[in-house]
Amino acid sequence: MSIADLFDSEFKDRNRGHFSAIVRVALADGDLTPEEKNFLDKLAVRLEISEDEYAEILKNPLKYPINPPYSYALRLERLYDLSRMVYADHVLGPKQKEILTRFALALGFTPGNVHYIVDKALSLLVMNVDLDTFVYEMRHMYK
């Protein structure tokens, strides 16, 4: 196996893990709204998730582990995707916020400030910010 094959395999595993985490958030309230489905469809294309993998992950989203990214910027991008899914139906229930908190911890955010991070992330989504603004605001939230 070449280095390129190993890198490609690890990249695909990370994407499947990220996608399955977002599917778990989408299914947390028991149903998949059309807006959530549309978001998943677009994200699957962006993450290079095949149709077979998509169906498999929808069937069993716990199959793939969450692989936290190494860099803070990538963690923020994943948090953005997860937050968008939590807020996709524009209704924040306690279970959705709890799940987002658990995923934020799994992404490597510290327990001491994870609630502030989740609250800030969701408040930015209410304002309908784009990814660049989200990352900037999250990086500078304590200034």
Structural commentary:
The chain is 68% helix and 0% strand. It has helices spanning 3-27, 34-46, 51-59, 72-86, 94-106, 114-126, 131-139. Helix 1 (3-27) runs antiparallel to helix 2. It has seven helices and no strands.
List the helices and strands and how they pair.
Blueprint: H1 3-27, H2 34-46, H3 51-59, H4 72-86, H5 94-106, H6 114-126, H7 131-139
Encode the helix/strand succession as letters: HHHHHHH
Cα separation of the termini:
47 Å
Strand-residue proportion: under 5%
Using the CA coordinates, give the radius of gyration.
Answer: 15 Å
Instruction: Note the overall shape.
Output: globular
- For the secondary structure, the number of strands is 0
Integer average pLDDT: 81
Main beta-sheet annotation? none
The class by helix and strand makeup works out as mainly alpha
Number of helix segments? 7
Relative helix content: 55-70%
Q: Could you list the spans in which at least 5 consecutive residues all have pLDDT below 50? A: 3-7
Question: What distinguishing features does this structure have?
Answer:
7 helices; 68% helix; mainly alpha
